[in-house]
Amino acid sequence: MTETDERDAIREQKRQELQEKLSDGGAVSESGDDAQGRPSGPVHVEGADHLEEVTDAHDVVLVDFYADWCGPCKMVEPVVEALHDDGTAVVAKVDIDEHQALAQRQNVRGVPTMLLYVDGTPVERVVGAKDKASLEALVAQHA
C-alpha cells in the first residue's frame, strides 16, 4: 500500500466516523471537534507528530508559526482565528519558542510564518502579517 493509499484510507475512515457523529446528532464531541469533525478552535500544536496528525486529518490546514513577543503575530492572530471560525481552513498554531526544533525543520526564519497544507502536503508559505482577504484568497486557490 502506497503512502497516498494509506492517506486515502485514513481519510475514508475519518469520513465514516464523521457520518456516525452526524447521525448521532452531536454538535461538539469530547475531543472538542464540531459536528463536521473540525476542531472547535485553533489547534495548539504539541510537537512534530501532532502537527502531522492535524495536517493529515483535515483537507486544508493553515499552520501559524508565531511567538508571544511578536507584534505582527498578535496583529494577525484575530485574522487566522476568523479563518478558522468561518470554516475557511482549520488553523494550527505553533509557538516557535516552545517548539524550536519543529520551526527549524519547517525552515521558519521569521514570524509570523504561515504554511498552508492541503491533503497533508505543504503547498504555500506566507511570511509576515497578512490581511484576512489575502489569506482567504490563498486558501481558496487550493480548496
From TrEMBL:
<feature type="region of interest" description="Disordered">
    <location>
        <begin position="1"/>
        <end position="45"/>
    </location>
</feature>
<keyword id="KW-0249">Electron transport</keyword>
<dbReference type="InterPro" id="IPR005746">
    <property type="entry name" value="Thioredoxin"/>
</dbReference>
<dbReference type="InterPro" id="IPR013766">
    <property type="entry name" value="Thioredoxin_domain"/>
</dbReference>
<keyword id="KW-0813">Transport</keyword>
<keyword id="KW-0676">Redox-active center</keyword>
<feature type="compositionally biased region" description="Basic and acidic residues">
    <location>
        <begin position="7"/>
        <end position="23"/>
    </location>
</feature>
<feature type="domain" description="Thioredoxin">
    <location>
        <begin position="16"/>
        <end position="143"/>
    </location>
</feature>
<protein>
    <submittedName>
        <fullName>Thioredoxin</fullName>
    </submittedName>
</protein>
<keyword id="KW-1015">Disulfide bond</keyword>
<dbReference type="InterPro" id="IPR036249">
    <property type="entry name" value="Thioredoxin-like_sf"/>
</dbReference>
<dbReference type="Pfam" id="PF00085">
    <property type="entry name" value="Thioredoxin"/>
</dbReference>
<dbReference type="InterPro" id="IPR017937">
    <property type="entry name" value="Thioredoxin_CS"/>
</dbReference>
